[in-house]
Amino acid sequence: MTAISAKNLRKTYGEVRALDGLSVAVDRGELYGFLGPNGAGKTTTMEILTGQLRPDAGHLEVLGTDPSMEPVATRERVGILPEQLSPPSFLTPREYFDFVGRVRDLDEMTVRDRVATWADRLGYAGTLDTLCADLSRGQQQKVMVTQAFLHEPAAVFIDEPLANLDPIVQERVKRALREYAAADNAVFVSTHNVEVAQDICTRVGIVSDGRIVAERAAEAFAEDSLLDVFLETVETADPADSAGQTATSDSDSASSPPGGA
Question: What's this model's pTM, rounded to 2 decimal places?
Answer without folding.
Answer: 0.86
